[in-house]
């Protein structure tokens, strides 16, 4: 069938943060997905600041160039699912009396005003039904996850993508794409934490049963580790980045002059403390009825470029006493033949976690029909 007659257009994913963007297009093959196209591009400091676009023209140009130079097959479509910055979003689990979807659309904004820090007319709001609790004597209620994002932030992303010649048909908060990428699709899971250790920030996500329950942004980043090495050893940023990747948290008695573990450990200890703080806060302030189990966090899954740091899972396990492992963003994707031109380099896979999660939704027509921030 010609593409112009296809009522389900092909959709690719674009993940954008302050300093880089990543593109992924997948194709559904039976119940699996195959990598079709990918690319990444750097964004100059100042174009985006803390998730808010400062220079639409520059970003639109970067997006346009990155789409035109993808590796693998040409995109062949203008339809995109794009990430919205986690640090600009607000999520909250609320309870509502049992009602149908049309009634919820009207009622949720009024209830949400009691929870969100912005005026309801200044945000876009989306909600997801987590659980239905059917009781007696009209006590039935719904647990909902509400997500809100300032309109000015969303409108800037939409405007920017249109300037790049694209159609942003779906907009999704980063945390949702991250979880989709790292879990087997359609599989109910115990309570766990996802930590996206990125270049400029860390996203913290609690997932339980079949849904995200809590998110926040932690102001600790992989780039801070590099700056600590620069300051400690008096070397260039490029050399410090190279040492960070090569040595990580490894320590060798015979090579103390280049032992960077002592330089970056204080920052990672702070990260561990903040992870612990948010886990304790959530468990202490949210009823265990929001968990399918007893509320215990069984596992922490790491992703993002910073998760490549050597010995990081062991370091965090010692601090938190919770199982820590590095995630696999290719969990739901068919393995590719070893061809560097058609495969995302192994050392960069974790950086593509969000983009892969977006592309999974874009390639799955059942998921793609559920739009957000329309």
UniProtKB/TrEMBL annotation:
It comes from the Bacteria. InterPro entries: ATPase_NBD, FtsA/MreB, PilM. SUPFAM superfamilies: Actin-like ATPase domain (SSF53067). Pfam families: PilM_2. CDD domains: ASKHA_NBD_PilM. PANTHER family: CELL DIVISION PROTEIN FTSA-RELATED, ETHANOLAMINE UTILIZATION PROTEIN EUTJ. This is SHS2 domain-containing protein.
């Amino acid at each position: 069938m010609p593409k112009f007659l296809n009522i389900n257009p092909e959709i690719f994913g674009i993940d954008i943060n302050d300093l880089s963007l990543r593109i992924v297009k997948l194709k559904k093959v039976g119940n699996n997905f195959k990598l079709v196209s990918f690319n990444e591009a750097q964004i100059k400091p100042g174009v985006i600041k803390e998730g808010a676009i400062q220079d639409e023209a520059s970003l639109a140009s970067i997006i346009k160039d990155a789409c035109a130079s993808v590796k693998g097959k040409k995109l062949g479509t203008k339809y995109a699912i794009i990430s919205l910055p986690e640090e600009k979003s607000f999520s909250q689990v609320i309870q509502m009396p049992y009602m149908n979807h049309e009634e919820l659309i009207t009622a949720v904004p009024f209830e949400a005003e009691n929870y969100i820090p912005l005026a309801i007319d200044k945000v876009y709001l989306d909600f997801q039904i987590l659980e239905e609790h059917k009781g007696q004597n009209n006590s039935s209620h719904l647990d909902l996850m509400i997500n809100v994002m300032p309109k000015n932030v969303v409108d800037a992303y939409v405007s920017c993508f249109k300037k790049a010649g694209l159609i942003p048909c779906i907009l999704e908060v980063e945390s949702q794409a991250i979880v989709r990428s790292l879990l087997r699709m359609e599989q109910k899971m115990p309570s766990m934490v996802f930590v996206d250790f990125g270049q400029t920030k860390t996203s913290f996500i609690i997932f339980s049963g079949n849904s995200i329950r809590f998110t926040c942004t932690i102001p600790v980043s992989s780039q801070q580790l590099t700056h600590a090495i620069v300051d400690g050893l008096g070397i260039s940023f490029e050399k410090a980045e190279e040492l960070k990747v090569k040595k990580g948290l490894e320590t060798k008695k015979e090579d103390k002059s280049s032992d960077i573990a002592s330089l970056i450990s204080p920052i990672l200890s702070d990260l561990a403390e903040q992870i612990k703080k948010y886990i304790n806060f959530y468990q202490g302030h949210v009823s265990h009825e929001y968990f399918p189990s007893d509320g215990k966090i069984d596992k922490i899954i790491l992703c993002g470029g910073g998760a490549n740091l050597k010995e990081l899972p062991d370091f965090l396990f010692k601090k938190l006493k919770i199982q820590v492992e590095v995630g696999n963003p290719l969990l739901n994707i068919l393995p590719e033949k070893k061809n560097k031109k058609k495969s995302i380099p192994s050392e960069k896979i974790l950086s593509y976690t969000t983009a892969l999660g977006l592309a999974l939704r874009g390639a799955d027509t059942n998921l793609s029909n559920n739009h957000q921030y329309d």
